[in-house]
């Protein structure tokens, strides 16, 4: 029997824990980016889950410490995810929407571990330049963003005061909002490939970097690098149109303004990343901004598209 009924609301504890798991997963993702940017993915050799075939590392290299730290953080994330599933099911009623999303998050967490293991076991790390590495990396990043979305939706629906049960909500403008989310997802995937190109083929100057992008002698990762900023502009324009036409009034206005501000910040960080020739710290800051923007956009979409039946113009408090 649920500890808290739909009418009585939910434990503040499970709400805080859900948001905390989301924040921790962002930290795990950022550390994973450090692994890639520093070429530390092979720090444990082609061994998984053991590191260099052993449990205890004697006089480990810095690359080994970086990779091993990421694995330890991922293990904690898995345990936290299982705890969140158990707590969510204990604290919610049978038709609670958060249950659906926490199960999705759990599946995506295991898938994240599988994709990470394949990158290591197949040697798609460090200085590997194969096309298959780009494919695995794209799948990994897409899965990561879907995981963050599922965790954000779990925390969001646990935090709602109304409109969190199946059967008492309706879906509005779901199709066009999905297009905006998918466009943003593709921007993230193209960004991961651009970052991989920056890591594998560093440029000495901005002019040299631009020359790499349009040289027929450059590696294919560099020749497709321009796709990321182009997609970012198109997706950004679509997101702004979506927000101004559907979220610029009522109780969603503050969150909509926040999304627009985060989008503008991402453009500034992206420009800085280019002009500074993508140093590791700038890549991490840019990725953090992208993750926060993605989470805010997902939550805004949920507030706009999943509303209590009879709610008018998004004025209901959810």
TrEMBL record:
The chain crosses the membrane at residues 21-39, 72-90, 102-122, 134-153, 174-196, 226-244, 256-278, 284-306. GO terms for molecular function: metal ion binding; oxidoreductase activity. PANTHER family: HEME A SYNTHASE. It is a multi-pass membrane protein. It holds the Pfam family COX15-CtaA. This is COX15/CtaA family protein. Pathway: Porphyrin-containing compound metabolism. It is found in: Membrane. One of its GO terms (cellular component) is membrane. Keywords: Cell membrane, Disulfide bond, Heme biosynthesis, Iron, Membrane, Metal-binding, Oxidoreductase, Transmembrane, Transmembrane helix. GO terms for biological process: heme A biosynthetic process. It comes from Alloacidobacterium dinghuense.
